[in-house]
Specification:
This protein is α+β, with helices and mostly antiparallel strands and 202 residues long. It has helices at residues 32-36, 66-75, 83-92, 95-104, 107-110, 118-128, 153-164, 169-183, 189-201, and strands spanning 4-12, 16-21, 24-30, 44-53, 58-63. It is 45% helix and 19% strand. It has a five-stranded mixed β-barrel with strand order 1-2-3-5-4. 42% of the residues are buried. Residues 1-64 are annotated as: Domain I.
Length: 202
């Protein structure tokens, strides 16, 4: 089991990154929030990983913090939730928001993620309701500089809006994070979208 990688960020894509560890490039699939926290190519990074092996595939998933990896593992325990859906949820919602949604039975919040319908969202919150309080949600430490560790509902909605307009998840996430930094934590959804659109287009 590969639990953690330390190396230089070599390349990034819409939902993946390559980490160069002593000359070996590891392809890791990541959520938009983890990708946004990666920084620039060439910088040293540590990412926490989960290795998934099936009959036809072997896939390494990467996370900014161990807590995000723990939530990924918990989400994929739910029937119908594979790695792609789990990453979509962690791209649309912070771990704090996932925990809140599960604790409160708020299926609508989970359904904001791409590819998650109302039925699946309901199953997720029902099955994880009793487990929601057992996992940490904070993204802190020196492994990755987080662009926005506590994503508000407004910024999550703004991220979803930009993705619906056709922006790639990484571009949308970075634009919303930059808008959040510029406007502050109390910014409204409409203001975040307006500023993020300018930054994404620029």
């Amino acid at each position: 089991m590969i639990a953690k990688l330390k190396g230089l960020l070599d390349e990034t894509g819409t939902d993946w990154a390559v980490l160069d560890v002593h000359g070996v490039g590891y392809l890791v699939h990541c959520s938009a929030k983890t990708l946004a926290a990666m920084g620039e190519v060439g910088e040293a990074r540590t990412i926490y990983t989960d290795l998934q092996v099936s009959e036809n595939d072997m896939r390494l998933l990467g996370f900014a913090e161990a807590s995000e990896r723990d939530w990924f593992r918990l989400l994929t325990q739910v029937q119908g939730v594979g790695s792609k859906v789990a990453l979509a949820i962690l791209s649309a919602l912070s771990t704090a928001e996932v925990q809140t949604a599960c604790a409160n039975g708020d299926a609508a919040m989970v359904a904001r993620a791409n590819g998650v319908g109302p039925k699946l969202a309901g199953r997720i919150v029902n099955e994880l309701k009793d487990k929601a309080g057992a996992l940490p949600v904070e993204m802190s430490g020196d492994s990755v500089t987080s662009v926005n560790t506590r994503v508000s509902k407004a910024s999550a909605d703004a991220l979803s809006a930009l993705e619906n307009l056709g922006f790639k998840p990484l571009v949308a996430s970075r634009a919303v994070a930059a808008a959040q930094d510029e406007l502050g934590d109390g910014a409204s959804e409409s203001d975040l979208i307006r500023v993020a659109l300018k930054k994404a287009a620029g």
